[in-house]
Design a protein that fits this description.
alpha/beta; Rossmann fold
Length: 197
């Protein structure tokens, strides 16, 4: 029936926010990274990277035919693919892209590390103490550039871009949009834990 897709830059807060929304509103979540990880184990990283985008597109397309709402989360559906899904059935597909285009890499890394032990934040692999700090800063810098690209492409395509430069602001903005979407699909908003976000 309806798919709420959350895509965008890695380490933006997509997975953590999607998990909380799914829990609060009793909506099933499809984590595209889980599908990717299975493909890596089965076929290797090179093959997985070739297969994940078409599989993610097909997954979202099939879920649009379901009688239930779904949250689909992960960076494996491009803005161009989202346009095709939306044009195929705009009432059944909403795409939102997330990122942190205004962040500074060192500040972002510190913010992620500071939140690592908190109840609502899922630890990100970049904050693993065994990782090289300079390599992680370089990786986050690439994600900041990718965030700017996601913002430009998503806004040009008519999709909402949520700025997660600060996690709390991004999570709240995404929650508000999600609630509006859920209400517009004629699904009632179940009672929820108001302590979240």
């Amino acid at each position: 029936m309806t798919v709420y897709f959350i895509g965008g830059a890695s380490a933006s807060g997509k997975s953590t926010t999607a998990a909380q929304l799914g829990l609060d509103y009793s909506i099933r979540i499809i984590k595209l990274d889980d599908i990717y990880n299975v493909l890596v184990k089965a076929a290797g990283e090179t093959e997985a990277k070739q297969m994940i985008r078409p599989m993610s597109f097909a997954c979202a397309n099939e879920l649009m035919e379901s009688n239930e709402p779904f949250i689909v989360e992960g960076g494996w559906i491009s803005v161009e693919q989202a346009v095709l899904l939306h044009n195929g059935n705009s009432a059944a597909f909403r795409a939102v892209y997330c990122g942190y285009p205004n962040a500074k890499a060192a500040d972002r890394f510190s913010q992620m590390a500071d939140q690592q032990g908190s109840e609502e934040y899922k630890a990100h692999w970049t904050t693993d103490e065994s990782k090289d700090y300079d390599a992680m800063i370089a990786w986050i810098t690439k994600q900041i550039a990718q965030s700017a690209s996601y913002r430009k492409k998503s806004e040009a395509s008519g999709f909402l871009f949520v700025d997660f430069t600060t996690f709390q602001d991004g999570a709240l903005a995404l929650k508000i949009d999600f609630e509006r979407w859920l209400a517009s699909t004629c699904h009632s908003l179940p009672s929820r834990n108001d302590k979240s976000f």
